[in-house]
Structure formats: C-alpha cells, structure tokens
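Changelog-adjacent note: as of this version, every example in the card shows the full chain rather than a window. The one below runs 324 residues end to end.
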Amino acid sequence: MSTDGSSVDPRREARERTGDRFDVRVLEPSPPASTAPPLFADDPVQDSDGSERPVLAPVPVVGAATTWDDLAHDEPDLAPWCADRWLGAWRPLVLPPDRDALVATRTSWHTLAEHVVAPARYRANGKIGLRFTRGGFGTPFFGADEQVRVGVDGLTHVVAGAATLHPLTTVRAAADALGIQTGAPTDVYTPTTPLEPDAPLLVVGAAARFLADWFGFAASVLEALRADAGNLSPARVQLWPEHFDLSFDFGDEAAGRRATYGASPGDAEHPEPYVYVSPWTPHSETFWNEGSFAALGLAAFADHADQRGAALDFFARARAELSG
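Full-length structure tokens:
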C-alpha cells in the first residue's frame, strides 16, 4: 500500500473490495506498465483481466454486466468507497470559498505537471499524457512498474509496488525525489508555467481536495462520453500537462464533426472550472460562446441535482450542433 493512503494497484484493490466477483474496471491507472504502442498506458474502462467473470465498469460499456454506481445502490456499504474514487455514488462538486487559494494551488499542481510529473514519464517512453488518480493526478505506470502521483498530501513515487510520499515544497525538491532534472520536454510542448525551481509551491488543502474531485468528476464524465462515441474514432482520455485539463477527441473529421471534448480546472482567462468542446473545423453558430469553442462553467450547473448529467447534456448539445 501507498504511504499516502492510496492503493498502488487500484484494479487489484477493487477486485478484492468486491470479493473477486467481477472483471473490474477503474478510472485510475493500474500496473503492470504497458509496453504496447502507441499509448503505453492501460485503458481504464476497456482492459480486461482475462477472466470470464462479469464486467464491472465505471461507465456503461459494451459487455458490462453492471456499473459501480448501480452496484453501490444495491450494496450501500460500497457507496463511500465508490464516491471517493469517482466510480459511482456521485458526490456534488462544491467550489471552495477562497478563489485565490484555488488559483494558487492549481498553478502549483500545473507547474509540477509540466516540469516534473510529465517529464518523469517522458524519459521512460516518450509520452506525456497524465491521468486522474485518487486524490489528484499522476502518470500511468511506466518502466519498472513506476508511477508518479500528486495529491493533497504530497508527491508519491511508486516503484515496483513500493510507494514513498514526499512533501511538496519546491519543483527542484520534487524532481530530486524522483532522481530527474526539472523542466518540461520543450520538443513536445511549450510550458505555460514558468520554471522557477526554488520558488515555494503553495497547496491549500481545501483547494487541492476540490481539484482532485474535479479531475475525478471529469474522468467519469469523459469516459462515459467516450463509451458512447461508438465507431467515431474516439481517442483516449488524458490529462495534458501543458493545458492541465482532461480531454479527448472524436467525430468524423472529413465531415467537419470532429472535436475535442474536455474539462478544465480553470485557466488565466477562466478563473473557475469549466467543461468545453472545441471543434477541429471552425463553426459560426452562436452555440460556440467562446468564439472558437463552447464552454459551460461549473457555476452554471453547480446547483444541478445531477451535475454529471448536466455536463453530459452540454456535450450532447455540442454533438448535435456539430451534426447540423
């Protein structure tokens, strides 16, 4: 087990939690490290354990016997465990009252994503895509079953089943803990946060917990959308270090219907989190309220009884707009 309270093998933990009754799928990366190109990462909702047990998945997928949310309704003792991992029994998102703390924490996490976490993965397999992990974000497993995670409690480094938790102080200290140099792989992306290795990182607990929940919410919504994309060539949901948002794309590019669907924790122009759709082909309809893309801020659906449903409705409307 990890010293930060998170499992080093979320899929195995889920299988044990359900009494080994299911071929379980979870949103978090799980070992072993994938060596299969082009993504070198496990698929959170499609990869099977090879058994003939019924499939238990975070979202409805072809062949799934049930979802975690349905199971949590049938077995209420499981609900808190599911909610904590954004598998089901969904809890509402509530913005922390201190916006400055949210921005500062988001900036610190973003800086780590660009200059420490993604580079740690990149040195192993040339990939930069990150994922939601319980309590924050991190890499898929890579190399010798290695993983790097950032969460409320600090930076966790997993190697071959052993996890070590490090406090978050500076970018240099985080990189030193992993045995790597600081700095983004600029041949892959241009970082949007400055590299100031010895500047203090500011992480406020309430803000960090919200950001972790935002990424869990986003992963659950986007994976549901990906499962519904059918034969429209959906990409894999990933957290991109340079944008610090979760997104994926799908749709018929030749027909002008391909777009990127994502969820951002906020940025310089949008201080609060939002979901968005960015068409690959420009569209002039009024739906695209940000000019080149459409966005729906959390404030617009925070009071909705079904926040995930509200986000999925927004994505459905964007698909309809793209279809003319």
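Structural remarks: The longest helix spans residues 99-125.
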